Amino acid sequence: MKISLNWIGDFVDINDKSATEISDLLSIHTAEVEGIEYIGDNISGVVVAEVLSCERHPDADKLSVTTLNYGADETVQVVCGASNVRAGLKVALAPVGCVLPGDFEIKTAKLRGQLSQGMICSDSEIELSDDSDGIKELPADAPVGVRLIDYLKLSDTVLELDNKSLTHRPDLWGHYGFARELAAILKRPLKAYPSEFSWPDNSSEYSLELDGQQFSHCYQLAELSIGKGPQSSPGWMQKRLLAVGQRIVSDVVDVSNYVMLELGQPTHAFDKSKVSGKQLSVRPANEKECFVALDESSCELVASDFVIADSAKAIALAGVIGGANSEVCSETTSILLESASFDATAVRRSALQHNLRSEASSRFEKSLDPGYTALASQRVCQLLCEMRDDIVVDCAPVFAGNSAVPSDSLLLNAAQARTLLGIDISTDEIIDNLTSLGFKVEASGDELSVAAPSYRATKDIQSAVDIVEEVGRIAGYDKIVPQPLSAPIEVPQQLPYRKLASKLLMRLVNNHQAHETQSYSFIADDWAELVGLTCYDFIQIANPVNDAVSLLRQNPALSLLSQVAVNQREFADGRLCEFTKGYKNNPNGGEAIESRLLAMLVWGSSDLPKSGQQSLVGQLRAVADDLCSLLNINSQYHVNPEGLLENYGFAHPKQSVEISFARQSLGMISRIHPTIVSALGVDSSDAAILLLDVDALVDAEAKTKFKFSAPPSFPAVKVDVALALPVAVDYAAAHKAVSAAAGNLLDSIELFDVYSGPGLEEGQHSMAFTIQLRSSDRTLSDSEEQKFIKKVSKAAEQLGGNLRS
Amino acid sequence: MRERLEALCGEGLAAIAAAESSTQLAEIESSFLGRTGALTAQLKGLGKLEAAERPAIGKLANEIKQKLQQAFDAAGETLQQQELAADLASVGVDCSLPGPTVELGSVHPVMAIARELEDIFQSMGFVIWDGPELESEVNNFDALNIPGDHPARESHDTIWMKSADGEERRCLRTHTSPVQVRALREFGAPLRVIAPGRVFRQEAQDSTHEHTFHQMEGLVVGKNIGVPHMLHVMNSMLEGVFKRKLETRLRPGFFPFVEPGFELDARCPFCKDGCKVCKGSTWIELMPGGLVHPNVLTAAGVDPNEYSGFAFGLGLSRMAMLRYGIHDIRYMCSGDLRFLKQFQA
Ligand SMILES: [Zn+2]
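Predict the joint structure of the above. Result:
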């Protein structure tokens, strides 16, 4: 909302304050000022001047050479092309150095050989109107040398307020409300709102019928005859309306807008001749009732809308916009003036429903004081009658409903207010601050009984803490001195999964080249089918941001995969990780299940081997091993376990591994199904994912204990063995066999090579291990080493292969 | 035997003369004088000689051994000197060459700030708590004193789940504030807690708007807790984010779950007299907060006559944008490595 400081000046004296001072005061005490606009600034160099002489240009028929007095020591010569320039005329002169709108700087020039030291302006050149026909003629008594903006009182300062910071304040949707705030902040008197008006005694022929549903609290109808019909409004009013961005229409409409911008209360004028019958009613719209608004948009009403209706038709969508069928036009000679109070929520819904938010509806939806209806009605009549002799109010207004706002006194303890605010403010000052805002206060020591004024009691002020705020913000929050909390007594309880997840995530980042990312919780509806599910298997969004993306993901696999598509052009391989959530409905009802998951996705060339340490699954297996050993969890791996695909539809049918501990699943590793990889736009890359259930890890970690073991006293024997085995015998089986051969002498075992090719029989592969044997009570002998090798050889034979070395 | 010894002596001296490096020399020394060296083998063989021959040959053998040893030592000394000189001359050494590339991971800027703040708050005795992202309408709105007809509940602001008839409406939480009530129900008063997490709005994306972003809620409830405590905690937190003290101010702000409500502004850290970030005002709006509304305390089972408190909400995504100068919020959930890689752990 924009407010004009000239306008504010009608009600409170702020002449001695600069615009920035006022802006800062309002920002700190009331509501955020987002910008300051200086009206007239763009023509501030233009001055009133008198044409002393005016001669035809010796070399140009249409030009005149003039001399002007503009209050300087010397006169200036200006060449002018306007036909209305003449000696003795008072004009608006832009002297040399003056900058006009459009960054047009006036410079000394020669026009057809004649010196020209300035420009005599037309209305359009100084943006006063569109009139570019001749120069502007000023009255004969215009004082020479005075700035035009001062003479015409064009100068004003407009503050732009953040509307969002006003939504809870029904009293701040007009200038008067801000004047009241400034009067309270500056401790200056506030002039009463000028709404005195003597209504005629004769009564109206009209009657009003309000619905019984509390939609309209009250309604006042006035009747005016407007002799010569709508005219243009006076200049002073137009200036103010234009300054705050209001369009100029005609005086009848302009006055209505003026009062709305001044008090905050919208009013509306109907053309009386277009209204049928002598009764107006406020009623719910009929379903599918057709309505054409003032702006010529038409809409189909719904039963929750309310309309103002005459005996035949709806003439306005209540609180939102008037109807075209009763619009005031140039032929209008009599009007019905509505000033009413409508239900805030219903008006907001109605405006939203038909996409017709208006200045009026945005005010009604703030719960305006119903008491404003009479004030606004009087103010409009007062202004119209003052402005024009041919406008008369025909009769006393008709009023229906109740404009009283119930307001209970609230109890406030001054000492408690001081404690909460941390501002040292006396009880008397508290009372003064509240009184200046219109509150009624009765005090008994520190116990205050406070009644809110009607313009604050509709919604804004409901309890004692609301009054604490009023006390604090008028006193000034800058008086608050920060104070530390006193020391805590206990070590705060923490969420175990957060700590653990952070620890693991930092491990992924620092040791495994993973880049932490954030991915969206929503997935595309199409993706359900990709993982073998339907939309109904997911929690569905009723109003998704994007219609085709309406499912809550069960896990982040595909969300992360979609980020590979973003990266693949620049990064042939990469690793992303995220600690995030998956969502599922709880089959037993109640709150949805939000699983806390640590995910790491790797991608790389599709040429990588599909198994072994270089493979994507192998890389993730190493990561999983590292994370589990960080937590001392001795995890188990099950290759391609049954049922995995049911939970993880993205998994590769033959390249997945379940991770578990003590028969509890901790998560999984899988290559992502190649069909899905390409469906998500990832070309020429493979991807695999590690998903860990962080809550399961917390449980598993709690079950394990780290135990110190003394450094060994006897040396280890290092043995390398290579086994040629049938391809069907996998690493897990070979590892098991070699470990068994070492028995209790096994200190460590590590795979160092997997090979197939020349030197091996068809259908065989070779796996080479480095084993450390160690005993806690002796140095191992050569024969013990030989015995182990023999055992390995025998085990290899049992597996259908042999020991190669 | 004698001939063999003399031949070895000659071979040894020749090899020493030919040695090009001390490493090579050491190998040669070992091949003559080592445990399995040629001369050592001869010395071991002395025992098999006739007793009469033994003294003379033995003497000769020891003389040759000493002679060779001296030659090795002398040559070793010379070679080492030469090698040291060559090392110090460093011909062909380019120390400007880079070392091997160390591949590093990176942290997400929003999460990095969240984790830093968690540490700060933990040190101030705050519990770090959490709540579900799918919230009931009651927890997300009603318990926070947000009226039933409040525009925030409408579908152009809040992402709602499909629900069956009669089922309680669920939404993706629009703020971390429901954790205020959850934590109070869990722990009661007094309490100090923060709740970082993901929040959602029904919002079209542009450079400053995202439907998915991160907030951190803070709540302190105790006896005689007031605005000065809130201001102190807010200031400490900002110092944590920006690594220096910022001048701050409180302005009135309106949020249904606090009263009085505030906006905390900080002096723009990027300029002295107005810039694009602060829109020329030199102040940046950083976080809303206020004293917890008595209705919220009541909804959480805490007696507002006995306890008071304050709450604040920090926009983590916004803080990250301010701290790192990120101009487009859409990078945050893009997964773009060119963006992510810049934030080192
Ligand atoms: Zn700045």
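The pocket of zinc ion is lined by residues B 268, 270-271, 274-275, 277-278, 282 (CB under 6 Å).
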